[in-house]
Specification:
Keywords: Amino-acid biosynthesis, Aminotransferase, Branched-chain amino acid biosynthesis, Pyridoxal phosphate, Transferase. The chain has 2 domains: 204 residues, Aminotransferase class 4, branched-chain amino acid transferase, N-terminal domain (D-amino Acid Aminotransferase, Chain A, domain 1), CATH 3.30.470; 185 residues, D-amino Acid Aminotransferase, subunit A, domain 2 (D-amino Acid Aminotransferase, Chain A, domain 2, Alpha-Beta Barrel), CATH 3.20.10.10. Helix content is 19%, strand content 29%. Helix 2 packs across helix 3 and helix 5 crosses helix 7. By secondary structure, the protein is α+β, with helices and mostly antiparallel strands. The strands form 2 sheets. Strands 1, 2, 3, 4, 5, 6, 7, 8, 9, 10 and 20 form an 11-stranded mixed sheet that branches. The chain is globular. It is built from 7 helices and 20 strands.
């Protein structure tokens, strides 16, 4: 049995800079029925209960999301006193009442982010500030308490430092980090909860494509929808994911890897499985147009989506030229329909189509099953096209530290 050592860690020993926002107060800006100002997360009150470090399994045996590190972070909240003392403790079960609102009304949100081990053994996070902003946005949407993102990030860094030996060394591997916030009010009834729990768990993961890039086939889903105007598609809520499992099984039974979520009578493209979607068209004047659906309330504002758009726009503006990325490139955030994709495929103007997300980074597509026929999509050498390949190279370089960038935030040396 592992030996547990409980100790209170003074803030002076936690090794963060002067920008720490311990004790900051935060304002919940949800609906009028949500809790008003409450005490913020106090980093200085962090408690750590250690366990003897265990030996991570061989990286070659990792299955995404099945293996977890030694410790986790928990922070309770209640409407009267706000955020309680953070606690890093051994990974293990949570104690929840059967009447907890998360179990009945899906009051749960989460994030997905990664830590990378660089060649010099430094561990970094990739654009974690964006995850904190999106998590607060999701919390407001379902009347869960908001929090100070900088304080939570400092605590996540402590958790990663404690379990640093779990961050894989092999190329293409990383530590997946899952912050989660749930309603824990012990009463059956629909309304803003008066109790909640924020927790963070970590999982070492291997590359999404362990044997190299393999383009995926999509099923253009018209029988179901992922999101609707005014709904919750733009937020990372647990309730958005369970309804997609059955359509995913249906797509697999038809011989496709993922759903391409289509919306409305014109079959607008929205997302690919759980990823944002990009299409590249060749215009009549030879210009390549990189298109992604706009953030209209149905589309999740993905961190990788924003990164792809930022890199493409920096290239076009000459701020950071990417090798092999075409110069005749324009970027559009606009609606796109399956009719446009199909016509471009038939006319030879469809250059590539790919998904973008934290897990896969870039996922190329080679065909879409649509209304009884397959719409074929070109794929370049190695499965990636002329736009996705150089963007992927730059993006992964920044994530791993091979390319210096302020998107890479140090965690531990």
């Amino acid at each position: 049995m592992s030996l547990l050592l409980r100790r209170i860690v003074p803030a002076s020993q936690l090794r963060w800079g002067a920008s720490t926002t311990a004790g900051r107060r935060c304002l919940s800006t949800g609906s009028p029925d949500t809790v008003a100002e409450t005490a913020g997360i106090n980093v200085s009150k962090l408690q750590i209960t250690r366990k003897n470090p265990s030996t991570p399994p061989p990286s070659s045996s990792l299955v995404f999301g099945h293996t977890f590190t030694d410790h986790m972070l928990t922070i309770p909240w209640d409407a009267k006193s706000g955020w309680g003392s953070p606690h890093i403790r051994p990974y293990g079960p949570l104690a929840l009442e059967p009447s907890s609102t998360v179990l009945h009304y899906a009051q749960t949100i989460f994030e997905g982010m990664k830590a990378y081990r660089q060649e010099n053994d430094k561990v970094t996070l990739f654009r974690p500030d964006m995850n904190m902003k999106r998590m607060n946005s999701s919390a407001r949407r379902i009347a869960l308490p908001t929090f100070d993102g900088e304080s939570l990030l400092e605590l996540i860094k402590v958790l990663i430092r404690l379990d640093k030996h779990w961050v894989p060394k092999e190329p293409g591997h990383s530590l997946y980090i899952r912050p989660t916030l749930i309603g824990t009010q012990k009463a059956i009834g629909v309304g803003p909860p008066n109790e909640a729990l924020l927790f963070v768990i970590c999982s070492p993961v291997g590359p999404y494509y362990p044997k190299g890039f393999k383009p995926v086939a999509l099923y253009g889903t018209t029988e179901y929808i992922r999101a609707a105007p005014g709904g919750t598609g733009a937020f990372k809520l647990g309730v958005n994911y369970a309804p997609g499992v059955m359509p995913q099984k249906d797509a697999a039974s038809r011989g496709y890897d993922q759903n391409l979520w289509l919306h409305g009578p014109e079959h607008h493209l929205t997302e690919v499985g759980t990823m944002n979607m990009f299409v590249v068209f060749k215009q009549e004047n030879g210009t390549l147009e990189l298109v992604t659906p706009p953030l209209d309330g149905m589309i999740l504002p993905g961190v990788t989506r924003d990164s792809v758009l930022s890199l493409a726009r920096e290239h076009i503006a000459g701020k950071k030229r990417l090798g092999n990325l075409p110069d005749n490139l324009v970027v559009s955030e606009r609606p796109v329909t399956m009719k446009e994709v199909k016509e471009a495929s038939h006319s030879g103007r469809l250059v590539e189509l790919f998904g973008a997300g934290t897990a896969a980074v870039i996922s190329p597509v080679d065909r879409i099953g649509y209304l009884g026929e397959d719409v074929l999509i070109p794929t370049g050498e190695g499965g990636m096209g002329p736009v996705s390949r150089p963007i992927w190279t730059e993006l992964v370089g920044r994530q791993t530290g091979a390319i210096p960038s302020d998107w890479s935030v140090p965690v531990a040396n």
